[in-house]
Amino acid sequence: MKNNIAIIGSGFSALSASCYLAKAGYNVSVFEKNATAGGRCRQLKKEGFTFDIGPSWYWMPDIFEKFFNDFNTSTSDYYELDKLSPAYKIFFKDEIITIGDTLDKICTEFERIEPGSSKPLRKFINKAATNYDIAINKVVLKPGISPFELVTPETAIRVDQFFKTISGDVRRNFKNPKLISTLEFPVLFLGAKPSKTPSFYSFMNYADFGLGTWHPKGGMYEVIKAMTILAKSLGVAIHTNSPVDKIDVENKLATSIVVSGKKHNFDIVLSGADYHHSETLLDQPYRQYSEAYWEKKTFAPSSLLFYVGFDKKLNNVEHHNLFFDTNFETHAEEIYDNPKWPEDPLFYANFPSVTDASMAPKDCETGFFLIPIAPGIEDTEEIRAQYFDIIMSRFERLTQQKVKNNIIFNESFCVKDFIKEYNSYKGNAYGMANTLSQTAFLRPKLKSKKVNNLYFTGQLTVPGPGVPPSLISGKLVAELIKKHHNN
Asked: Which residues of the chain have pLDDT under 50?
């Protein structure tokens, strides 16, 4: 008889797991609290403008391709992918660095800023490429059960890279502070300070400079649409507007879930929702991790986001833009060491309509602005308005244009919304940081230690934050379920 599996949530990891489990012959039902599938990857459509309100960077195209290949399909069967040229721009106080779509172009740009820097850059990216190969093909495909998973012939000779940091590596090889910031930026996706991130994670720099930055035509939500079509074709039932209130447990077995007050029986339960929230759905004796445990963990930042419709095309901007005209270290301290609203925040701005006309009305621009902030801090309308004004003034100055009077509308999303919409612990945006003490087997487990048929997936568990790791997390948990519960 086929096992019936309930999956809570429908983000990348949950949809990934649903596909692998359905392919393996399980009856899979997905329950999503919001009106659309996709978890944090959702879209806002307003007055002809289309915004990705969650993830907006498409990195590691090979991971997406591998996922669809596992079902004898390809990304190109579902959406059109463009490599961005340039990948992005970084605005400093007195300089703009343009990251091209090839390593040669990036080397030329590094030489312009710091003569002689292209040589150490090529060496750094070569090492990062090797790390990427090991990470993606060896390390991240392990379920995070034992420390020995990290010990492979390849990692054993690189053990020092788990104890050195990205920051140390970069600063040994590059002296120009702008180049240092450029190379330290990608690890912010891993949710920790570069000075706390093991240098093995330089594979993110290869993802950036080696593999490039891509855009699915129509936005990141096209990937969710593709995964939903695939899941349904495999027999997965997806129920939206279906919040799960409780996981019932008897004799160390999850027997049912309560959805909008109604009980549904299942043989196996998998939660792709926020891990901390998922455990609150259990009675106290069945929770693995205490509130004190979560309190001590390093969480990735939350974000203050603005979705802005402009009634004109903007000048001097690319699809992706980073504004690093303030102090990187100070802002990082205000997120991780001394959590508070940043005095002078770095911020990111995304204008997908620069490369994809479908994202905005004719002669208009779709703008998405993001300020990384500490999770759990105070969030009020007044604070949001104050920061919108701060970044728009800087944006006008750095891009040398007036835009404030061209704003048709501006919608914001912050800590309170992450909690309300996604049950996100302290309103974090990217899960749990990948620091050394929170790597691989040291992260919350895919399989519950207290409930025999309860599993977890997503960015708070293995392998970690980000969209590609979430796709992998879904695959890992599906393999674990197959191993423990043969159909």
From this structure: 148-151, 156
Q: Which residues of 309-337 are buried (b: 16+ CB within 10 A; e: fewer)?
A: bbeeebeebbbbbbbbbbbbeebbebbbe
Tell me which residue of 61, 83, 81, 71 sits closest to 227, measured CA to CA: 71
Cα separation, 339 vs 399, whole angstroms: 30
Contacts of 66 (CB under 8 A, 6+ apart): none
Q: Model's pTM, two decimal places?
A: 0.95
pLDDT in the model for residue 156:
47
8 Å CB contact between 389 and 353: no
CA 400 to chain centre: 31
Q: Are 108 and 122 in contact (CB under 8 A)?
A: no
If you count them, how many residues does the chain have?
A: 487
**320-323 and 253-259 strand pairing:** unpaired
pLDDT digits (tens, 9 = 90+) for 45-70: 999 999 999 999 999 999 999 999 99
Q: Which of 316, 135, 103, 126 lies closest to 212 in space, CA to CA? A: 103
> How far, in Å, CA of 77 to CA of 227, rounded?
11
Tokens 């990348």, located at residue: 12
User: Nearest to residue 37, comparing CAs of 240, 204, 185?
Assistant: 240
